[in-house]
Amino acid sequence: MEDDLFASGHRACAGCGSALALRHLTKAAGKNSVFTIATGCMEVVSTQYPTTAWGVPLIHTTFENAASVAAGIKEALNQQGKEDTNVIALAGDGGMVDIGFRALSGSLERGHDVLYVCYDNGAYMNTGVQKSGATPFGASTTTTPAGKQSHGKSEWQKNVPFIALMHGVNYVATASIADLDDFKKKVKKALEVEGPKYIHVHCPCPIGWGFDTSETIDQGRKAVESGAWVLYEIEDGNFSISYKPSERIPVKDYLSGQKRFKHLDEDDVETIQDHVDRNWEELKKLEGLDLDLLKLL
Amino acid sequence: MTETTTGGTIKDPKSSKKNKTGTWRTFKPNVDKEKCIKCGKCGELCPEGAIRITEEGAKVNMDYCKGCGICAKECPVKAIKMEKEEK
Fold first, then answer.
1. How many contacts does A have with B, using Cβ atoms within 8 A?
2. Residue B1 has pLDDT above 80, yes or no
3. Which of A1, A4, A8 to mutate to test the interface with B (most CBs of B within 10 A)?
4. Higher confidence at residue B87 or residue A12?
5. Is B69 helix (H, G, I), strand (E, B) or coil?
6. Rounded Cα distance, A91 and A267, in Å
7. From A14, A51, A217, residue closest to B16, measured CB to CB
8. What local confidence, expressed as pLDDT, does residue A295 receive?
9. Which among A186, A202, A280, B28 is most buried, taking Cβ atoms within 10 Å?
10. In chain B, positions 14-73, which contact chain A (CB-CB < 8 Å)?
């Protein structure tokens, strides 16, 4: 068996979903790849000076500019005649959908041939679980603590895959560590596409979400089986759901296994169930439509 | 004192292998070689990349295993049990 390009000895917490995602992302991308990584969990745990877990070149950027640095690397490689080298900009949800969002948007607009991957663990985990734009509704974090006056985060997640699409991106996908074959297939497909592409991978976090370290895959699976996290891809504007559970499990089964949702009352759970149901129905309506048209608006 | 490189460059790929993160462990996986069907699921799902499939079945590299228990939880034939680490 070939050695991983994201090696053992990294300092991620036991049961880390994001570290698992990186193992398989690097495997799918292969040796002829250059990565940039925004400040965040995966940067901190994989590049503890003077060691690195990486078997391919990596540049640690600031929180803001993983996408911009990747764009620069891509253009420099093109000048050197190395057009075949994959360039991948990596950031957590904080680094991609909040702090690095401006750089992501600018890079997408300019159309560099770069794959942007957001490993979404649903908050700023490395600094102590502060909420991000990707934190789900109702989740208790250190900046949205549940208490007498608060039921956790009061906003819904930002839909960054669709925001990316609206930049005119030819390949957008969501993925989960609960289906690694699907994730790897999407990474390989994305890297075949000319121009910018965006993949958003759901990565459960035992520490920040509050579940046992052995349940990382199980929590990811429950998110997908309930429809709280939907796997889909959009190729040249064609939308398709990658996995449809024969019967979606109640979202309560997903929420109840995590401490961050422990405070939710029945009304809250119903609100979330309604939202998940509506989201699922709306996404199903998009199947077969040409979303390229939306880019022309 | 380690002398720092320009820009903090690290020139030794995968040098994280020097970090024996197995010392973090409080539970350790015990593979029942009789039950193991060598499907490789545990190795695929290990965040540490610490499990390899050998002729005798799944083999966990204890230098890196942090004892998360994903392998035991996800094994389709329940061939892995987590046991308290004794040091």
1. 113
2. no
3. A8
4. A12
5. coil
6. 34
7. A51
8. 65
9. A202
10. 14-21, 24-25, 43-50, 52-53, 61, 63-64, 66-70, 72-73
* pLDDT tens for each residue of B2-33: 689 998 999 999 999 999 999 999 999 999 99
- State whether A55 and B13 contact (CB < 8 Å): yes
Q: For CA atoms A112, A17, B9, B16, give the dihedral sign.
A: negative
Question: Which chain A residues are within 8 Å of B43, Cβ to Cβ?
Answer: 1
B77/chain A closest Cα distance in angstroms = 16
The DSSP code for A193 is S
- pLDDT value at residue B86: 85
Which of A12, A54, A217 lies at the smallest CB-CB distance from B74? A217
**Alpha carbon of A12 to those of A19, A97, A112, B24, B41: distances in Å?**
7, 22, 31, 11, 21
- Give A14→chain B minimum CA distance, Å: 5
**A41-100 residues touching B, CB cutoff 8 A:** 46-56
Kindly list the domain boundaries of chain B, sorted by start residue: 19-84
Arithmetic mean of pLDDT over chain B: 95
pLDDT at position A288 = 87
| Predicted pLDDT of residue B2 | 65
How far apart CA A158 and CA A155 sit, in angstroms, is: 9
Longest dimension (CA), chain A: 61
pLDDT at A1: 46
Domains of chain A: 17-296 (3.40.50.970)
Q: Are the C-beta atoms of residues A18 and A205 closer than 8 Å to each other?
A: yes
C-alpha closest to that of B31 among B74, B67, B79, B69: B79
| Cβ contact A55–B17 (<8 Å) | no
Average pLDDT of adjacent 10-residue blocks, chain A of 297 residues: 86 98 98 98 96 98 97 98 98 97 98 98 97 98 96 96 94 98 98 97 98 98 98 95 98 98 98 98 93 70
Q: Chain A contacts of B48, Cβ < 8 Å?
A: 8, 10, 19
